[in-house]
Amino acid sequence: MDKVSLEKYSSAITMSDMEIFVFPELMYSLVLANIMSPNLWKWREDDTFKKLDGKGPYKKFMRMKQYIMDNYDFNLDLETWGLTHRDTELERFKDVISPENIASSNALFGYHGDEYYFDVDIRKHFGLDKYNTEIIPYWKTETIEAMDAFRYKQGYSTGAGECVSLAALYAAASFVVCGIPLEDIYMILTPLHSQNYIDLNGGIITNNRRIVNKTMWFNGTEISAKAQRALRNEKITIVAHPTGFVHTFYDDATIDPQAYDKFSAELKSFLTAELDLLNLVNFLRTYSHYQTNFQFCRQLHGTVKFVKAEVMFNYEHGSKFRIADDTYDKLIDDVEGEDFSTYKYADRICCEHLRQFLNKEKIDLKKSEDCIKLANYLKPYIENSEKFVEDISDFLTVVPQLPSLKKNFTKTLPIEISTETTRQEIIDYLQSIRSRNAVADLAFYAYRDMDSCDWQPFIKAALERNPVSIELLKDKPIDEIYGWLSSIDNESIYDVNRLAQPDEVANYTRGDGIEKAFLLANVIKHRTPDAKLQLNIDNDSAVLVADKAYSFKSKKTIRKNINL
Hints:
This protein is of the alpha+beta class. 45% of the residues lie in helices and 14% in strands. It has a 6-stranded antiparallel beta sheet, with helices on both faces. A 4-stranded antiparallel beta sheet has the order 18-17-16-19, with helices on one face. A hairpin with a 5-residue loop joins strand 6 and strand 7 (204-207). It is elongated, with a radius of gyration of 27 Å.
């Protein structure tokens, strides 16, 4: 392989966020690796999903959301996969993308985001503020096998993964478990987050372990505000799809232009809502300082009574009932009589009256004249009514900062897999298009299929980008490390002839003999870079020859002799 190809293919194995940023093909290759994984297909045999046989994709998707929340934690430990040097990574990528472009859009290289992120000190929020020198964490993305293996790591009782891992898992599981076509799933990556937009039931956005539909997106709750943070405040760096990708910094794009147009239109529609009573209430739930300008009026026992907006929101807090939706009457029933007034509060606008005004005037906040009309109507009740209109307009319209459509769209062979296809048929299909589709080819490296992949990228990744094992064992002599490796479980987290990297062995304290030999080689090479090592693999044994021979038992069926 040439230098750039070797970096790309070895990156398909380590899958750090910065590697995906530089090589956007990697994002979908991870999804395909998960789709090929037996771990994911086992979900279909779980009673949780077998009970839903014959049900539609949406029903399955909602159950899957709970399954993911029950079985996977959101892991934001930045040092799970160790530390590296900025200069080391910049040197790796200099032939692909400039250091300036990386720094302007990648959190690990100094990105701070826009004004909002400065206000909330987002780098401190994510724990990035302590990496102000050239030492930075490897923010790696996990395969489903590595996510499942977190249960073996101290401090975890379930699987886990960071945001990109969870997005890739959601995308793959939506296809395998819920039967949602791949072409209806779009991956959205920003400098600080990764989400999916799924074209199902009016649109769904996945957000770490949770999901948000359009109603939830505008409900004004704290959870929804967190889900909105990335799309409100960050540029979208990458959109990935089975037809290809588009990257904000690259002139060439492989995604199908029609698919990208469709996605752009649907996402913009999803992120926009009309001004009605329900959305007014949702707005007041978020912008609580405006509540003192509003009141609710209801006819109770033949008499019109009034209640201050902030009082209603206090009742709503902690209740399963909500203002202005189908449960509103039940919430009203919970309000104590002393909180009602028989007199209208003269300095407050009645929400029901405002609704009548909106319906009569057909207010459209996209029209400046309508904004002026609404501001004038509210002026007697709200001192700065223009600011109120500006705020509610912003609340109801999120403008996604998508990569430009002005790209050189290059037609590539799309990934076309039916939801009726079996796992083995999918693997066979992806194998058949590897020479014509780079994403499919890279997927087998992410999948760690050592039977069909060049070993050079795996070896490069194992000996250059696995700092956890080096740090963990830094004070131990080689013979003691060998003894420790021989004592831990001789089980790989990957089935058949697929291999874990050294830091996966170190983090999960288990591994096949071949994987243990690579960990030992990683430590020896770090301590003695010029050491001549040879790894001899012969089915049930793996022998690492250094100053002496270190023998391990293997359950893989691999025969190979490698000079390291």
